[in-house]
Amino acid sequence: MHLPKYENKPFKPPRRLSQSSVHSNSSTTKTTVKRCVGIAPLEAKAVKKLKYGPQCLQDQRKIYTVVFRKPSLKKHKTWDGDGYAISKSLHRFAFYDSCGKFIANSVYSEEQEQLFDHIFKAGSLELQLDYEITDLEERREAEIVLCKTDSDLKRQDVNETICERNTKSSQGITAEKALISNTKSKQKPVFNSTLKKLKDSDASSVEDPKLKQKRKYSPLFDVSKIENPVVMNKDRDAEIDVIVDPLVSKHLRPHQREGVKFMYDCLLGLARPTELSSTTAMTDVTSKSLVLEPDSDIQGCLLADEMGLGKTLMTIALIWTLLKQTPKASQVPCSQQGVPLQGLCHKVLIVCPVTLIGNWKREFNKWLNLSRIGILTLSANNTAERDKYDVRNFLRIQRTYQVLIIGYEKLLSVSEELRLGKDSLDLIVCDEGHRLKNGASKILNILKSLDVTRKVLLSGTPIQNDLNEFYTIIDFINPGILGNYSQFKKRFISPISRARDPANKFNEVVVQKGEERSNEMIQITQRFILRRTSSILTKYLPPRTDLILCCRPTEIQISAFRDILQGAQLDLTNLNFNSSLALITLLKKVCNSPTLIQNDSFYNSNLQETKLSNKYNHALNSGKLKVLMALVERIRNGTDNEKVVIVSNYTQTLDIIENLMRSADMQICRLDGSTQAKQRDAIVCSFNNNPSIFAFLLSAKSGGVGLNLTGASRLILFDNDWNPSVDLQAMSRIHRDGQKRSCYIYRLVTTGCIDEKILQRQLMKHSLSQKFLCDSTANEGHADDDLFNKEDLKDLFTISCETLSNTHDLICSCQGKGDEDITLNDNNSTIKQLPIKPAVANLKHWQTALEAQRVIEQSENQNNNEKISLMKRCLVGYKHIDPKIANDLMDPIAIEAFQRVPNDISFAFVKPGEPTLEAT
Ligand SMILES: Nc1ncnc2c1ncn2[C@@H]1O[C@H](COP(=O)(O)OP(=O)(O)OP(=O)(O)O)[C@@H](O)[C@H]1O
């Protein structure tokens, strides 16, 4: 199977622009020519009228790009310049420099296959062919340069006429303005370095002020000819509208149109009225340009949309717009029609996890085509020296690449090169930007040292509930907006933390102050943070059925739980979460498979004398493993050639699953923390494209982020993480754009054991995380103390062998016939989505101890009710099914699996997907 491979173009030095293409007043750059010729093919008739030196337009001879240098004896030779070659016959080549000036002829008489390796000697130069220009647009560009050898005004006029006619004849989304050089004025050659200087200079240095006053400017696109355009907002000084290229905007969904405008407003420091971000306003305003007040505090943003909402596409649309357009036309060189020839940005740095570099490049190709935009990626195979060379060239050379995509890890090795060339960078995009939450991180400090004001952070994972981390990220995006750290600490961290401290839970004043400061912080930051949930996508995706399957523990598991809990001699009166963590982890492992305990460090140092491990060393020794194997066998035997992704937090669990599946002759691939960066992309591609690979084993934490596994339509989440967003990340790998089949997500939990309790915490936390800043997402696999009191901890260590589902027992009293699901009554639906706190408000000052006790008890009850309500909220829409009573798990595969292991699925919550797929 042939997979697309995107190689970087070789670096070339800046091309010297031909005299006619650029001049110091209303100058025209190479881009001008490119735009002009890219609109519609030149008509042969018009072309024939031109009597050009190289005659290149009169026939279909091949045109190549070339690089050249003076002959040198140096070991590591570099190229001095670039140009073109025209092959007049199979063997004869005429070489021209980048201005179209003839250099020399040369002959090639060797094997055709080695043509591109051959070093030609022509004139006093060595030359090498780079690539044949087959792209129409690029060929036209070359032709025009080559045709200008004896440039004269008449010929230029004809060019202009052709360009104008092409523009007029182009329709709808191709209605781009022709960009025509003003050749009638005096021309001086300008190098790209000069253009770079112009970039930051004042308008007056580019244009004569008198001329400027008279001059009219035009946007790059004619908005009247675009169906449903996306027009950017502007400030009062804007001279023209900036309109997203219809080539991209035609693909954008309503939330994406709004997202692109949001990011643009932030980067340009435009103060957005809050109503603009409301969902109802979306469709109405994105095609209009509103005049907004400036907001000097903001030049960066955080796009925190949930995964799968298309943050990559939105960012590509933004980058492409900024590279090509600016509202301040008078500050850049313009065509004769007043169309700016430069955008607001010239060079963009995208930093992302190494696993996502390939994905970014594919997305650029998907939406723009790589022939339009120069994307440089640093290959994982490159040496550090090669990386440095590439980065230096990226920043130095104007023309070849506009975007550099680099892994976070590689930033360190090229930091010096980036710092030296930092003035060339205009925008930094940090994908999975929550990685920058650590203020001491070297990567963050390198990025800060680049002094790039415009920044976009992308993160599908909510920012964690740690105010220090939050400060670090916000201060990176918009430095100083929250004051310096000590001011921030005083104003926000201290009062908010004090209010969260259980010791202050009855101090109304403290709690209220914390709440006020928290709201104040939200108000400041929501100006540049945008978060939408993936529910927006429902109507564009195939239906998704969610099944939570409670898997009955095996006898082996139950006896392992008992032995461990007895051996650990828990002091239930002095429990706290951190001291119990090792035991909790051990119990989680037993839920997956008792085999795992033999490698558990807590077990080995504290419980080994119990010599339990040998007893549990059987293959299918857990309920979840039995259900998993029943499911995957059913999926594999199905007629639809469906594939499955299996996710676990433990690589050792993946080892067990891998062994079981391989012994059942299933072909699998696997991605976990040990998978080399350079292999990751290839593994994902081969899974999605190779029909013989049936399953993908994925470690939830080490790579789930950002992966596209739409080759599979079923996903089994083998264990839960405390942090619901880790699981959500994993689950959205298959149910995302590009998915054509109905999807099924199975979450396996061990009935009545710690697995189910973790699920319950997740359900509560997910409800809480709706309020952005108060997201109670836990840190790196640790549970959040907010949600654990001593009773909760005791509950974690309680095994309920008799129950069909401990979760169901808590929230509902139905029989599990499958016909009842939870609907929130009015009371419940108004539950405040705030972290659970004791009902402090109920406790007035100066109450007797008895009254206080009563209020506290009431508060605790109220909290329990709130917790249950939070859980219910997450399970709205789920059917409650005891498969022994109601044999309808709403999925033929699950039904067949149940028939195979009827004693191992004790209960199920099933949320059937709605058939709402819209043509996209
Ligand atoms: N408007 C659209 N039409 C069709 N496909 C789209 C659209 N927007 C995005 N996609 C596709 O959806 C998939 C997911 O998009 P993308 O990776 O950008 O999401 P994301 O928000 O960055 O998610 P994550 O946080 O998981 O990385 C990609 O394959 C992308 O090409």
UniProtKB/TrEMBL annotation:
Per UniProt, subcellular location reads as: Nucleus
Q: Which GO terms describe its biological process?
A: double-strand break repair via homologous recombination; reciprocal meiotic recombination
Q: In the UniProt record, does the keyword Secreted occur?
A: no
The biased composition feature labelled Low complexity covers 18-29
Q: Which residues form a coiled coil?
A: none
Per the record, the domain of life is Eukaryota
Q: Where is this region: Disordered?
A: 1-29
Q: Where is the composition biased (Basic and acidic residues)?
A: 1-10
* Domain spans labelled Helicase ATP-binding: 292-480
Keywords from UniProt, A to Z, are: ATP-binding, DNA damage, DNA recombination, DNA repair, DNA-binding, Helicase, Hydrolase, Isopeptide bond, Meiosis, Nucleotide-binding, Nucleus, Ubl conjugation
Residues annotated as domain Helicase C-terminal: 627-786
Cite the Pfam families for this sequence. Answer: Helicase_C, SNF2-rel_dom
Q: Which GO terms describe its molecular function?
A: ATP binding; DNA binding; DNA helicase activity; DNA translocase activity; hydrolase activity
Q: How does it assemble?
A: Interacts with RAD51 and DMC1.
Q: Which family does it belong to?
A: Belongs to the SNF2/RAD54 helicase family.
Identification of the protein by name: DNA repair and recombination protein RDH54
Q: Which organism is it from?
A: Torulaspora globosa
